[in-house]
Each structure stands twice: as structure tokens, then as C-alpha cells.
Design a protein that fits this description.
CATH class of the largest domain: Alpha Beta
Largest sheet: 5 strands, antiparallel
Strand content: 25-35%
Distance between the termini: 21 Å
Strand order of the largest sheet: 12-11-10-9-13
Number of strands: 13
Mean pLDDT: 75
CATH superfamily of the largest domain: NusG, N-terminal domain
Low-confidence stretches: 1-46
Number of helices: 4
CATH architecture of the largest domain: 2-Layer Sandwich
């Protein structure tokens, strides 16, 4: 399963550092780390390559539709997760990489047009676009289930694991995992502070 380790905000180092981080973090399951950015600044003529496009907030979908409309292959992954909002846990769909999408195009033919597409800030690398390794794109696509959505699976816990509640009314409380209840999404933990058992959704939990 692909683990999106990037923060859901613009990286402090700017979009260029985003490419480096994403290429290093998005590794295939069970594979050793590989630095996919090693050859990212090579110059390619008359070939379709994958590039990262930096967009204005909330413009990922409209830009993807425009590019797809002229025959450009686009990867615009979404993250489906569950978050605690307004005192209840609900499903939320958000961009996997806010303000970024990936497109496969011939640089010399389309770079200028894409740069001036409404909602685009620039192609990462600007005048010398940085190539995104195809294995990174494949790693993303292999974990997309439908409608460009990557579904985060609940973390698995073993009896006795130390856990902390990361959201909801008991946020930051620590405890010990006891068992799964009614499937892997509902679990029972022993709260350290209150000396009691608590049944809750496993999406609330993280291992300590």
C-alpha cells in the first residue's frame, strides 16, 4: 500500500523540493529505497515524459479536465480517509498532493500551453521541467481503486501495542490495544489515564 508521507501543505522548500521528497517517499511495497530523482534533469527531445504541475489551490480538477480534453494523460490522485469533524467521524476526499498533479506530455510541444493554462502556476522546474520517474507514477496508480481515489486502509494493531488516540474527544489519550471489535475498523483499547476500556474506530489510533 502506498503511504502518502508528505504533509498536506505546500512544502517549505518550495515545489522543487516536493519533487525530490515525493520521488524518494513514494516507493513500491517491499522494494528498497531508490533515488528516482538522479536523472530528473536530463533533457528529453520529442518524447512524452511525466512532469509535476504546480497549481493554484483547488484548481487540480479543472486543470486535469482541460489537459485530458486535448489528449494528455493526467494523474490527479485523491485521498479518501476518515476524519473527525463536527463531533462525528466521516469520510473525506482530498487531493493526495494539494496543488499538484502529474501529466504525461511532450515538453517542447505542450510546456508553454500548460504553463499559461488558467489555474496553473508553473510546471515544476519551470524553464527546465523536472521529469517524474515513471515508477513513481506507477506506484500511485497501483494504489488507486476508483475515481482516482487512494483509499487508506486502517492500521493493524496487535494485542498489547501501545497506542495514542489522534483525533476525537479523547485526542492525545494513550492506552493499550486489546482487540478488534466487529471487524478491523472497530477496536477496544485500555485507557491508561481513566483505567477503563474504550471502544472506538481504529482510524483514531496510531502506534506509539
Amino acid at each position: 500500500m502506498l503511504i502518502p508521507c508528505l504533509e498536506q501543505t505546500r512544502p517549505p522548500g518550495g515545489p522543487e523540493s516536493f519533487l525530490d521528497k515525493s520521488a524518494k517517499i513514494l516507493c513500491l511495497p517491499g522494494r528498497p529505497f531508490r533515488d528516482y530523482t538522479k536523472h530528473s534533469r536530463k533533457f528529453y527531445n520529442n518524447k512524452n515524459m511525466w512532469y509535476a504541475i504546480y497549481t493554484k489551490p483547488g484548481k487540480e480538477d479543472s486543470i486535469a479536465l482541460r489537459l485530458q480534453g486535448i489528449g494528455i494523460d493526467v494523474v490527479n490522485p485523491k485521498l479518501k480517509s476518515r476524519k473527525f469533524r463536527q463531533n462525528r467521524l466521516g469520510e473525506v476526499i482530498e487531493p493526495l498532493f494539494p496543488c499538484y498533479l502529474f501529466a504525461d506530455f511532450e515538453k517542447d510541444k505542450y510546456a508553454h500551453m500548460i504553463t499559461y493554462t488558467r489555474g496553473v502556476r508553473y510546471i515544476v522546474g519551470k524553464q527546465n521541467p523536472l521529469v517524474v520517474h515513471k515508477e513513481v507514477i506507477n506506484a500511485i496508480r497501483n494504489n488507486i481503486e476508483y475515481d482516482n481515489i487512494v483509499i487508506m486502509k486502517p492500521q493493524k494493531f496487535a494485542k498489547g501495542d501501545a497506542v495514542v488516540i489522534k483525533d476525537g474527544p479523547f485526542k492525545h489519550f494513550s492506552g493499550i490495544f486489546e482487540s478488534a471489535v466487529r471487524g478491523p475498523e472497530r477496536v477496544m483499547i485500555l485507557l491508561d489515564t481513566l483505567y477503563c476500556k474504550l471502544e472506538l474506530d481504529s482510524y483514531y489510533l496510531a502506534k506509539v
